[in-house]
Design a protein that fits this description.
CATH superfamily of the largest domain: Type I PLP-dependent aspartate aminotransferase-like (Major domain)
Distance between the termini: 70 Å
Strand order of the largest sheet: 2-8-7-6-5-3-4
Structural class: alpha/beta
Bound molecules: pyridoxal-5'-phosphate
Order of helices and strands: HHEHHHEHEHEHEHEHEEHHHEHEEEH
Shape: globular
Largest sheet: 7 strands, mixed
Radius of gyration: 22 Å
Length: about 375
């Protein structure tokens, strides 16, 4: 073969690149939030709509040293203080790079290719994302038709001793619905060999938690995040809780410095003063009632929520309503691709809800 032909065929092979794993080939690409959100009223990603807690920003501005950023992160103090805050032992808690990493390391620790993972749909996209990435066999139970209630009996029917993981948002995103502590107990009993993750990203709004049950159920994992109520989504920090023996396995599947030093510092300061969070939750709960009234006045059907967002029914106009609102500076999320006609709006302050309602009224 002439030299240049050999080179050409070699380049061709390299240009094609290595073949990805089968599980990756099968996945649809995930599209993260679009850019250009800063100067709009951001009611599309369930973040805190008033910004990060001022006492956290003040602390970072005043006390951040050059060494804080030049040395690899040390988590000891953050772990101790968060453990005390959440009333668990430090070895019952793993600090994670957002809930996303909690889901990722849980799956990496417990789910092999072909293993059975049970999800309730529609739900937070990352449950499916990491399960698919692991090559799991996913069984799916649907939230109930119409009122999108938590399908407890249908879920219990799907669970058995072969289930390796069950991932549940309680309350769930995007439905805003959930189950109670007794419901979770039944799930834990029905899937004795599974890692059961109860994602409590919206706990501060729902007030329902199963965190104290980690002592009772060795198959229970609970996650919390600083991305929502705490106003620290950009920091990417969350916590995963379970019995210490489980945490020891999970930590082996985590890279050693996945939470950055600034995030570890910010969350430590965030839990020192609860006033910001308490006031924000009260404001959102008041704004929720205002939103319900406004939607009722416009005769728009909606689902009552346990979280800081509401799904409302825009029928055929879901995408158009989202786009029209965006043109008026208000961002909401179209969810009609998974629940026909559904649009999701984050509940912010009463003023923000008022602004959303007045823009919606103009285009409805
Ligand atoms: C149910 C649920 N879990 C987790 C997350 C993401 O949390 P984090 O920012 O901690 O990764 C979201 C974000 O929308 C969510 O709705």
């Amino acid at each position: 073969m002439p030299a240049n032909t050999a080179l050409e065929s070699e380049t061709k092979t390299i240009a094609n690149g290595p073949a990805p794993r089968e599980a990756v080939l099968k996945m649809a690409p995930y599209h993260p939030p679009t850019g250009g959100r800063r100067n709009k009223l951001r009611l599309d990603f369930n973040e805190n709509t008033v910004g990060a807690p001022p006492h956290v920003i003040d602390f970072i501005k005043r006390y951040l040293t050059a060494a804080d950023l030049s040395i690899y992160p040390e988590y000891e103090h953050t772990l101790e203080e968060l453990a005390a805050f959440f009333k668990v032992a430090p070895d019952e808690l793993t600090l994670t790079n957002g809930t996303d990493e909690a889901i990722h390391i849980l799956i990496n620790t417990y789910v092999s290719e072909g293993d059975s993972v049970v999800l309730i749909e529609p739900a937070y996209a990352m449950y499916r994302f990491y399960s698919q990435l692991a090559g799991a066999t996913i069984s799916e139970v649907r939230y109930r038709h119409g009122n999108l209630a938590f399908p407890l009996s249908e879920l219990l029917e799907q669970l058995d001793a072969n289930t390796r993981a069950v991932l549940i948002g309680n309350p769930n995103n995007p439905t805003g619905t959930g189950t109670n502590v007794d419901g979770i107990r039944q799930i834990l009993r029905a899937a004795p060999n599974a890692a059961v993750l109860i994602d409590e990203a919206y706990y501060e709004f729902s007030g329902v938690t199963v965190l104290p049950l980690i002592r009772e159920f060795p198959n229970l994992f609970v996650s919390r995040t600083f991305s929502k109520t705490y106003g620290l989504a950009a920091m990417r920090c969350g916590c995963l809780f379970s019995q210490s023996a489980n945490m020891a396995h999970v930590r082996k599947a985590q890279s050693p410095y996945s939470v950055n030093a600034l995030a570890a510092m910010a969350v430590r300061i965030a839990v020192q003063d609860r006033t910001f969070v308490e006031e924000y939750v009260l404001e959102v709960l008041a704004a929720k009632e205002l939103l319900y009234l406004g939607l009722e006045r416009l005769k728009i059907p909606y689902i009552r929520t346990l979280a800081n967002f509401v799904l409302f029914e825009a029928g055929e106009r879901a995408i158009e309503i989202r786009d029209e609102l965006r043109n008026r500076g208000v961002l909401v999320r179209d969810r009609s691709y998974e629940i026909p006609g559904a649009v999701r709006v984050t509940i912010g302050t009463r003023d923000q809800v008022q602004r959303f309602l007045s823009e919606l009224e103009k285009i409805w």
